[in-house]
Amino acid sequence: MRGGKRSAKVAVRKNPENWDLNESFLDFSWDDEPRLRDGFRSASEVHPSPLEWDLAYREGTPPWETGRPAAELVRLVQQGKIPKGTAIDIGCGTGANAVYLAQEGFEVTAVDISPTAIERARTRAAFAGVNIHFVVDDVFQFIRSCPAPFDFLLDAGFYHYVRAHALSAYLDFLWRASRPGSYCLVLAGHAAETAEGAPPGVTEEELRFELGRLFEFVEMRPFRFESLFHREGYLGWSCLLYRPILPTFRR
Ligand SMILES: C[S@@+](CC[C@H](N)C(=O)[O-])C[C@H]1O[C@@H](n2cnc3c(N)ncnc32)[C@H](O)[C@@H]1O
Q: How far apart, in whole angstroms, are the C-alpha atoms of residue 152 and residue 163?
C-alpha cells in the first residue's frame, strides 16, 4: 500500500519550507468538479484506490486489522482525556474502534470507502449490541452533506496515506467535521520505522506543521500500531489534538 501513482502528477508538499504560510487550504469552493490546490479531485484518482482498499479486506485480513480497539484510544478514553459526545471514525475499517467508542457512550458515525469493511463493521456492532451510524462513502464526499460537526474525530491510519496527495482536502475535511472545542486523535506512522510493511511514516515536524494549522497539540507521543503481521507492532505517533475556541484561550 506504499507509494502513489498520483504522486508524479501532483505537487506533493511534504516539506514545510515549500509551503506559503499565508496560503489557506480553505479558499476554494466546491463546484461540479472540485479540484483543490494539491490537485486532488476524488478518492477514485488516488492510490490506493477505493477498489484497492476494498480488495485489502476482501482478500483476507489487512495488516492494520487486529479486531481490537487501538490501545491509545482506550488509554485516552479511560483517562477521561476525550469528553463524551458525538464522534466520527474516519476510515473506520471493520469498526473495532467505532464499537469501542459506542460502548463507552459516544454517539458514533463511522465512515469507510470499503463496502466490505463496513459490512464487517456492521456485523461487529450487531454482535456488540451497539448502534452506530455506518456510512459507505469517500469521507471527502460525505462531509459535504454532513449535518453537524463532531465533538471527537478519530483518525486511526488514514491521515498518513492521504496527506501525500490530498492534504488540503484532508485539512478542509477536519475543519468542516470539527468545531471549536472538538478533540481529534490521529494515529499515524512514524518516519523512523523501517520495518517491512510499516504504514507510511511522518516526522514530528510534518505533523506539527500540517495538523498544527487547525489544532493545538494536547499530547503527542510515540506508540506502536498493533499488527498481526509484526509481533512488536509498527512505530507510530499518537496525537491528541484540540481545536481552540480562541487561539490564546485554551480551557
Ligand atoms: C489503514 S486502514 C485503517 C482502518 C481502521 N481505522 C483501523 O484502525 O483498523 C485505512 C482505512 O481508510 C479507508 N479509506 C481510504 N480512503 C478513504 C476515503 N477517501 N474515504 C473513506 N475511507 C477511506 C480504507 O478503506 C481503510 O479501511
A: 20
